[in-house]
Amino acid sequence: MEKSTKKQNIFSLKDISIDNVVEKHIALLEEHAKPQRVITNFQDVTCDSTFMAQYETVQGKSKAIPRKLILHEKYTFLIHKLIKRCRNNKEGDFTRFNTKVLQATLGAVYKDMLNTLVAMNIIRIANEYIPTIQARLIEFNSNLSVSSEMRYNAAVDKYDKKMEQELKKYEKEQLEEIRSEIGNELYDNFIKSLNLLHLTHETEAKDYLNRHKFMSAKSKEYFSYILEEYKKKDFKILSVDRNLRIYTLLTQSPRIFKNFTNIKFTCDIHNSHPLLFNKIIIDKYNIDNNILHILYNNINNIDNSLYSVGKELRKLLINNNIQECKIENIPNDIWEYIYKTSKGVFWDDFTDLNEFKRLLRSDIKVTLFREVFYSKTLTTKGKDFAKVFKKKYPSVYKLIKESKKNDRTFLANQMMRIESDIFRSILTKLYAKKFRVLTIHDAVIVLDVKANTKCNPELVQSIIGKEYQRIGLFPNSSVDYYSTENVAKELQQEEQDLKLINELIENFRVIANDEAHPKYQNSKEIIEELEKGTAEIYINHRTNQFVWHPLF
To answer: Which of 172, 257, 471, 484 has the lowest tally of Cβ within 10 angstroms?
Structure first.
């Protein structure tokens, strides 16, 4: 059989040769093999000058020196793979390797190889990892020059195939785990639906790639990567996290990309995670279903512009024969929080505050999450957003703080777990009707396929509402439609918007260079995200607002 010599884009380091890396690898092994002089009487250390150290020479850890040729091949592959993965990562110049797969591909020497790359400042490896869930983060040194060439490389080809085989073994194991976590029936229906997702407008997607003014080369590169992944038509569940949130190519896709697929419509939950916190509030204050029923049935009769929505809701409940003693211990800001999140207007309060006038709408959302709901610290020190939230919702903030007292990650995990439980129930109900649907965490994705002829937004929203109400929550959802016409309009509008967006970015740059400015840190982060290509800014012409859109 003729050997495959298919060309591919091979990545390498411009200024560091593989030979130099191999020599460094061997030098480090030889250094570790040398005898080491160590102190043997640490237990006798005193606080004065009387301590006399005693030394002992210990034999170093000797390892067999691998053959240079084999090392050269393995480093050629590993460096290529590292650069390629980092280039395709939407979040930045980093990646993760499953250690089982890496060891099976490169052998036990993989550890020394990574240590060598760290010692040469080619990569940095984070200390944090989650056993069996998340591997250590490997960050590529973005200051290093990289070259690429379309060619055949035998070493890359050999280890690519080996890694592919090992990945298939690993994926088989993962598949069994995912099946056991979400259940066979739900898994089968999800995969059937996922296999019906496809790219319907490849030409238009390529046109967008060429015409769109990307905020950075990185974001353009990532869009191209997503496009190529869709063209492969090999859709699968990429992972299921500890909170049973399902990740697929769809969850990784940029916002605009939905317009190039066969998505019929989506149903999104407004302020989903702030809404989910109501479950914790309801349990804490023992708010019964009767009270919630009255509240939700009258939610549209209360003017959210009122100075004290909480007081009005309290009056409403008393007027509906709720005994005052049942609600007297529930603060007004709790009622207001339930109302605002249930009506889907939670974020509006913050966009109207003077503190946030110059900030982007979605950035307020991101920052509030970071400083309030998901913060690992229990104070508002240095957190402008958290201070405003605490002032507006003091009782809610107190409860958030209490929820994180023993475990700083408890609240975030709890809300994601509640969300995934709800959406698994929604999927089960929709699959029972033979519909082909998917999810992106807090949204239901309905595909434009024959099976969904009778699947309309009203039906989906009805099922969403019932599943949320099952645990005492009242969601507010919206429906979005996608088409290439949307893309054409966006590209046309983009030319007009670009000047305004660039002016806004320049304003952020000015603030990011002024450490004395109160919004210095926030503006600095915005600029960094734009430059890394992990976010973009666009104008929502329905609301006439700038929108910050994370690309992940």
So the answer is: 172
- The closest of 422, 396, 423 to 411, measured between CA atoms, is 396
What pLDDT, on a 0 to 100 scale, did the predictor assign at position 355? Answer: 55
- From the centroid of its chain, how far is CA 343? 26
* pLDDT per residue as tens digits for the range 400-410: 888 888 777 78
How deeply is 55 buried, as exposed, middle or buried, from its count of CB atoms within 10 A (0-12, 13-18, 19+)? exposed
Beta-bridge partners for 330: none
Q: Are 132 and 168 in contact (CB under 8 A)?
A: no
Only one residue has tokens 């049973």, namely 244
Packed helices 410-432 and 272-285: angle between N→C axes, nearest 10 degrees: 110
Distance from C-alpha of 72 to C-alpha of 89, rounded to nearest angstrom: 26
Q: What is the pLDDT of residues 87-125, one digit of tens each?
A: 877 656 778 788 888 999 999 999 999 999 999 999 988
Q: Is 80 exceeded by the pLDDT of residue 350?
A: no
Domain segments of the chain: what residues?
A: 11-146+153-165, 183-261+483-550, 262-482
Structure token digits, residue 162: 């080996």
Q: How far apart are CA 106 and CA 114, in angstroms?
A: 11
- Residue 33 clears pLDDT 60, i.e. is over it: yes
d(CA 195, CA 232): 12
DSSP 8-state assignment for residue 480:
E
Round to the nearest angstrom and report the end-to-end CA distance of the chain.
Answer: 43
- Residue 310: φ, ψ to 5°: -60, -45
Q: At 463, is the secondary structure helix, strand, or coil?
A: helix
